[in-house]
Amino acid sequence: MNSSGGIRVLIVERFPIVQQALVSTLHSLVAVVSVDVVTSLAEARVKASCTTYGLLIVDAVASGTRESREFDAVRAHVPGAPILLFSQDESKQTLDAARAAGIEGFVGKRAVLPSLLSAVEKLLEGGTVYPVQRSVNTPAQVTLPEHFPVMLSARRQHILARVLEGQTNRDIANALGIAEGTVKNHVSHIMRAFSVDNRPRLMLRARELGLG
């Protein structure tokens, strides 16, 4: 924080368009007074050595000995400041690596901006933010047949299973760690595949075909 109590944020992000989106979004928070952007952990270490930051946002988990040393050096300059991983890679391996590195929060780059703001606010309040994970080996309660009656990708079959469980788009988005709008698009495609125009008819048609 600075002397007036506002939060200074340091972003480590390689792509200019993402940098601009993050800066614009973060400035909408009253608590944030300034945002600095660098493209590497080495640059972040230099910045953090002469400026006090209340939040760090990084685009990847440090990998390799050199990056890990740079990451540790950045953290040493901003003790107590939470770190948010804002990454395109939403795999379980990346989430586990982030937790192991002591990173307090994760938001995928496919998330909607309100989700990012909520995550930042929660981190600044001392909380942690990670998506709910379902093991890839754990099936949904609804078991889908091996020979599926319509052409759907494995991802959409999985979303359909959750729809048949009665989960809302928001429930599905939270469980899978994706944007609610993305789920809505998938569900719309699924309804077209089943030649229906709403969820009740989708559920009825799916069950007529022996699903759920």
> Radius of gyration, rounded?
21 Å
Average pLDDT across residues? 83
Distance between the termini: 53 Å
Number of helices: 9
Q: Structurally, how many domains make up the residues?
A: 2
Element pattern in H and E: EHEHEHEHEHHHHH
Percent of residues in helices: 40-55%
Structural class: alpha/beta
CATH fold naming of the largest domain: Rossmann fold
Task: For the largest sheet, list the strands in their spatial order.
Answer: 2-1-3-4-5
Give the amount of beta strand, in percent: 5-15%
Instruction: Let me know the number of strands.
Output: 5
The top-level CATH class of the largest domain is: Alpha Beta
Q: Describe the global form.
A: elongated
Assign the CATH superfamily of the largest domain. Answer: Response regulator
Low-confidence stretches: 135-147
CATH architecture of the largest domain: 3-Layer(aba) Sandwich
Tell me about the largest β-sheet: 5 strands, parallel
Give a description of the structure.
With 212 residues, the protein is of the alpha/beta class. The chain folds into two domains: 118 residues, Response regulator (Rossmann fold, 3-Layer(aba) Sandwich); 79 residues, Arc Repressor Mutant, subunit A. It contains nine helices and five strands. Helix 2 packs parallel to helix 3 and helix 7 crosses helix 8. The longest helix is centred in the N-terminal third of the chain and has 14 residues. It is elongated, with a radius of gyration of 21 Å.
